[in-house]
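check these tokens.
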Amino acid sequence: GGRGGGGPAGGPPAAPPGSDTYKGWLFKWTNYLKGYQRRWFVLSNGLLSYYRTQAEMAHTCRGTINLSTAHIDTEDSCNIVLSNGGRTYHLKANSEVERQRWVTALELAKAKAIRMRNNQSDDSGDEEPASQSDKSELHGPLKTLSSKLEDLSTCNELIAKHGAALQRSLSELENLRLPADSGEKIKAVNERATLFRITSNAMINACRDFLDLAESHSRKWQRLLQHEREQRIRLEETIEQLAKQHNSLERACRGAPGLASGTASISSTAKAGSVQSAKGEASDEDEETEYFDAMEDAPAFITVTADPKHHRRSGSNLSGASEGHPEDWSLEDSVFESSNQSSYNESTGKDLLPRKRRRTRIPDKPNYSLNLWSIMKNCIGKELSKIPMPVNFNEPLSMLQRLTEDLEYHELLDKAVKCESSTEQMCFVAAFSVSSYSTTVHRTAKPFNPLLGETYELDRLEELGFRSLCEQVSHHPPAAAHHVYSRRGWTLWQEITIASKFRGKYLSIMPLGAIHLEFHSSGNHYVWRKVTSTVHNIIVGKLWIDQSGEIEIVNHKSKDKCQLKFTPYSYFSRDVPRKVTGVVSDADGKAHYVMSGTWDEKMECSKIVHSSHGSTSTEGKQKTVYQTLSPKVLWRKYPLPENAENMYFFSELALTLNEPEERVAPTDSRLRPDQRLMESGRWDEANVEKQRLEEKQRAVRRRREAEAVEALEEGKDYEGYIPLWFERKVDAVTGELICVYKGGYWEAKDKQDWSVCPDIF
């Protein structure tokens, strides 16, 4: 029950009933989220198989049911129900006529499959006697059948007894003097009673014949059962062997530097330096499909490692060249040399400066169970920010603090300042743009939605050379403005609006807005946008996060570009998971560097010494081959702190973001009570406090709306909410309206004058 109807299933089946193969579109019931889905069914050799598209017939079968042992039933004028053991298909045809065609074809195919099976069993010679367990499994049903036959015999005797009594009564009625028409009716009833008794006797005889037949065919059943068991054992052994091989290959892949950053890939572009991928044929997969088609996107380019002395092409690809040495590159690349000689965990910039001792742990996450579906089932299709969520799905950080986490690897920008070449600098900016995703790989919890006017500061000017300020400048849609100043020679600013949709099985998070980065000495101004984040298995299974899409980083002064591609996870892909590839090119489109790595581990950079056009792809476009020197690791993820799995998988920086600090603004996220209670493990109190804060914010919004209506009635202008520390301006580079820092916050902090701050907590 509970299954909805389907729409038109397409054209008529591809073959008439009675032929060996029968094909056509039917609707198949999937689940209560998606209901009936259109599938391509193929009936052949007693097997009914289905596919999502006709093209899938060449490589992917979604399911098969054996008709020789299946039960075929019809629910209504258009529905068909096929059941075979524990597997049941609920199908729906476009019309009653089409349903009848399928039923006829299925019945004929079932009869033919049964005949073929019996013939095969008869042709086979004597086999070894079945085991005692097999005999017991078969004799059990036979015994049950005998018992049911006895019940039927008892019923037959009762029917015969009552039938005879009925006939006697009718005969007595015939002997009575009744009108002629009454006598005819009684005679007709008597004849029907006789037919009923004959039919019941025939039914009992048929049941007895069936039992005899079942007993005579017990050996055939035993052989079939033994054959199926052997097939299952062989299949399990094969799958186990494949799993072991896959595991060993994966370990070898991760352990060998030559395979860590992915396999060679082929470009669909004729222009050197371009990494725009050519889309394959449009997929007919459902919108809710969890896995991406591995063949949907053509890979980006081929890289081969050049001999550093003779620039000869070697047999290894870009990642295979990671065993190269720093001296393979020219000495002028001093910044790359310094980044390769020491890891960021031992960066001189972090260790030589005095650092304030900060906390290294927070209270462990409580183990509270909660039924996610009970909350989510009424939220499908809604904006995530409008769904009332308990803190059980949160982590004790706000979205403003998560935005500040982008600065975890700020040393990349400090190194970029020292680059004399704009293309070298672009490599570090690209690595920085990827590094901001490294903290998300295990972070499946949702950050707190900031209240309107909420702020967050991170003042590390004396320790790390930068200070950061975020402010929630809009509530619907939620938007946060961010400004970072570094005394080491760079400034970063952005306004990010989060658009998110809950799709039933996964959650899509789409950051909207541009990120700006400017270097003080060179005036290089970089702009890029974030990719889409997807949280999978929202309802069932373990949550996991993937990043997919493309980032184009543009230096608006020199016109250099970097195209980065985040490859979506595919179950069938041979690539390393979470792969990122890209090419850095100058204003003329000449490629200078190849970027490769993963967004959760590291990014490498390889200098291009030669590029050429290879063979033509199947789409008719030329492939680009880059000959590169050995790659350099620009960025590598810091290891997580000890016990991170019990602390929301926070990084070292994330653990300090909500640490209480003095002299911050009264609107700072550290002072938010529900977030603080959640961090302390008092989730019930946090939920109550969260509801109070949200209701307080709604009251302020209603008052603001009333003021707007009043101003409109009086013919006055109403400005609405005005951010405290940011102001809206048209960006000179992108032409977009963006919130930029107008100053005053750090001066107010020095004076401890927070009189302009609203009471939001």
Notes: The CA atoms of residues 353 and 463 lie 6 Å apart. Residues 132-175 form the longest helix (44 residues). The first strand starts at residue 21 and ends at 31. Residues 361-639+651-710 form a domain with the Porin fold (CATH 2.40.160.120).
